[in-house]
Amino acid sequence: MRLSLRFKVSALVLLLVLPLFLFLYYTNIYSANVIREKVANSASDTLSLHLGSLDELLEQTSTYLTRTANESILLELYSESDPDSVSYYVSLRKLMDQWYSDVSYYSIIRTVFVYHQERDELYLSSQKEYYHEKDVIRSGLSSRLASSRYPTTPKWEIVNVGGEPVLYKALPDKSGRLLIGALISIDALAQPLTQLESARSDEKIGIISKDSHLLWGKFSDQDLAGIRGLLDRPSNSASNSIRLADGNDYLFVGKPSLFSDLSVFILLDEKSLLDELPLFQRVIKGIPIAVIVVLAILLILLSRLVFKPIHSLASGMRILGKGQLEYRLKEGKSKEFQLITEQFNRMAEQIGDLKIDIYEEQMKVQQAELKHLQAQINPHFFMNSLNIVYHLVDLQKYALIKKMIGHLVSYFRFIMSTNDTWIELSGEMNHIRNYMEIQRVMYPDRLSFHEEFPKEFENMLVPPLLVQPFVENAIKHGFVNNVKPFAVSISVNGETGNDGVRYAVIRISDTGPGFDIQQLEQLNGGLYEKEPTDRQLGIWNVRRRLTMFYGERAALAFVNDPEGGGVVELKMPITGRSGASYVPGTDCR
Predict the structure, then answer these.
(1) Which of 243, 275, 307 marks a domain boundary?
(2) pTM, to two decimals
(3) How far apart are CA 556 and CA 148, in angstroms?
(4) Is the residue at 280 inside a domain?
(5) I need a surface site. Which of 9, 128, 158, 312 has the fewest CB within 10 A?
(6) What is the C-alpha separation between 555 and 39, in angstroms, rounded?
(7) Residue 545: inside a domain, yes or no?
(8) Could you report the per-residue pLDDT of 396-449, keeping only the tens digit for each?
(9) Which residues constitute the domain of residue 308?
(10) Which residues make beta-bridge pairs with 305?
(11) Rg of the Cα atoms in the chain
């Protein structure tokens, strides 16, 4: 009996579709397991990466504490000084200033403190309110501050301070009289975890201590017991599962910290991971019908309705990419490609308009950046100056108080009025003189200032606050020995470059220890300017403005004086307000 063509085609389609359907059914089951395993492994790798970064921060903070305890001259001076001596207050003030910058630089540090066991003195620098933090440390760490035993392992201890769990570590200094410690907020450690790229509402992240106390996250006691059981397993597989109190099953990924007794874990909702698989199964069942219907017409229609318009679109994009912005596509035959053609032509037109808008926006950004660079005030200097005035009032030195306040008024009047793009060099020098006079009140008979400022350069125009940051850095980093006299010198000279342009060379030098080899390489190589921190913001500020105003014609160099001390040289073309060359001795306004 002859079989009908319909039967043969039907049988052939069935023979083709049935194995394909069975294969895809098996693939669906296999895919579910693969997705589950891959997502868990990916989460495990991501968690390991972030936990490694957290451990590295903890290790760096431990190294910072060890270096501070063993190498800080200020700590040694504070420990040995009489509480009524000047060196006591100076060392303590500088120590607090240094730690204020360190707490800002090490973002995970909540508090750095020093405790003098013999005098029962506690001083600290913290991101929290000072006096409240001082009280909670005394109440929460009283037994540890009074104890003579110190940690012998690199791990951080988990303690409760002010009702909040924190990581704690303290080390003795060389004399054994001081205890230098730090507190790290668990919330600060957890912040990077909340920024994981895979973090969604169906994921739960937490931090747990070794004794099963929840340090961060929201989980019930029943959930914590199961989580601790998974963490304690000798082989912590990436595909472990746990059912939480909400009735859902979760993939569990957990990692312990190397430098503290805490563990970080992520729970992935298995139901959300496999939500798309039922749709995949329905697609599998429709494949045989789709094959029969689509294959008959697909090749004919694709060439005319899809491939040809796509080829035209790709050619147009290549032409547009070469800069021929006047090119336009012809109107498409289908509604979809007609819309694409209209959007393409509109995009080409907008690109031409955006070029002009981008140039204008860049100019606005540079102007805003310039205003920002010119408006930086050091809060430490302001607070220290007020503190000096306060002590002078106690000493009833009214003439010196009047002089100090006069210089402060002039100093901050200049700071608050640096909205001009250019100022005269004489104005900058007057500002530096006010700054040095204030410093000389702070350090009488130990600080001197010398200048060589020819009158012919008084009317030369420069960006504001161009020289003062280096004078401030010289005192801050060079004046390390408060007993030995310290001098700062500024000289201004002119020279003619190889291009025939007249240049001004401003030289700032001091009698301090100078720069070490590594600092010179970083400063002259521009490494500080590529990734500026709070410590090098002034240098980045000056180099940035030199580039904005003078381009490659300006230079900034750092060297050591053969006779001792550090030297900073600023070299810039002498120009007027309009950019024209300025001849020293003439009015360039």
Answers:
(1) 275
(2) 0.42
(3) 51
(4) no
(5) 9
(6) 53
(7) yes
(8) 777 777 877 887 777 777 766 656 778 888 888 988 888 888 888 878 888 889
(9) 298-370
(10) none
(11) 35
